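Take a specimen:
=====
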Amino acid sequence: MVVEVSTSKTGKHGHAKCHFVAIDIFNGKKLEDIVPSSHNCDVPHVTRTDFQLIDISEDGFVSLLIDNGNAKDDLRLPTDDNLLTQIKDGFAEGKDLVVSVQSAMGEEQICGLKDIGPK
């Protein structure tokens, strides 16, 4: 997610430059890039999809219900302690939970939680 953009003036030997500061949506790390203002920039396509949580395995993987009725079993629990606790506690209490999964550039991660009530 881009949080800051600044542009330098055209120099004696080249183009004006754009300085981008961004925060990685998956790990929170700060990233920076400087590119000529006349060049194109690649922009990732980010999607967010909600899935009902079916199960949590002992090795930290979750089982999610896909719209077609199949299970999605290739995602791990999130690393964010607050979200992890909410998911584990809600599941242990028998609540129906829906997790939001953010996808971009071949990566996926659970980024949110909704409680849709008791089972």
Q: What stands out?
A: The beta strands are 2-7, 17-23, 30-36, 47-56, 61-65, 71-76, 95-104, 107-118.
